[in-house]
Amino acid sequence: MDADSSSLLGRARIHAALGDPARLAIVDALTLGDASPGEIAHTLDLPTNLVAHHVKVLTEAGLVVKGRSEGDKRRTYLRLRPEALAALTPPPLTGVGRVVFVCTRNSARSQLAAALWHDRAHTPAASAGTRPAPRVHPRAVAVADRHGLRLDPTATAHVTDVVRDDDLLIAVCDNAHEDLTGPTRPRLHWSVPDPVRVDTDEAFEAAFADLAARVDRVAPAVTTAPGDRHD
User: Fold this and answer.
1) What is the pLDDT of residues 186-231, one digit of tens each?
2) Separation between Cα atoms, residue 18 and residue 10, nearest integer Å
């Protein structure tokens, strides 16, 4: 079994262990501090034999370890292993030179995504389009300005003129994801609705919020290659 498969199995065991409400409540309690099985039973109002069963499952999944009290040697305390919970996150995306966001026209979503990434992740970002427009959409410029970001209205580009071999390519529209099937193929796909179709401030705000949430979720998993911290 390779390392990736082993990691997936370990994560699956942890997810399965957390799939029971009582076990999740035990983990919540141990997040705040260590406790004996009897104390857990009292806090959660559970029978001690049921707590023993749940603790066994959590221990086998690697979430909880037991230790003898330094005072009363007959007493056992349970301790949460936070590193096991940290293992639930997907493997990191390493060796990334830049993050490049692609949509069809490079006039809204990809521009906003690149600006958000640069602002929040503080790592290199760019944008491009499969059929770039002459200018960035005015509502995209306006929504960026409302959130303290700046877009260059004339800075649109074709994907072939922007993408490099070490780029992490993210398609932020369905068309770009489906059109780019050759060597320049997106590694990730964010299906963000096109605000230009609706062409209202509300649509652009919704797209901005969607992109911001995705950037915040993915950025911690991306590790840039050495020497590529700046454009």
Assistant:
1) 889 999 999 999 999 999 999 999 999 999 989 988 887 665 544 4
2) 13
pTM: 0.74
**Residue 155 DSSP class:** -
Half-sphere exposure of 148 (CA within 13 A, CB side): 3
Assign 163 to helix, strand or coil: coil
Q: Strand 99-103 to strand 125-129: parallel, antiparallel, or no bridges (unpaired)?
A: parallel
- C-alpha 207/C-alpha 115 separation (Å) is 13
Q: Roughly how many angstroms between the first and final C-alpha of the chain, as a whole number? A: 39
The three-class DSSP label of residue 56 is: helix
> Distance between CA 64 and CA 78 in Å, rounded?
6
Q: How far is CA 162 from CA 100, 116, 133, 138, 188, in A?
A: 8, 18, 15, 22, 17
Burial class (CB in 10 A: 0-12, 13-18, 19+), 20: middle
Neighbours of 87 (CB within 10 A): 15
Instruction: Count CB atoms within 10 A of the CB of residue 101.
Output: 33
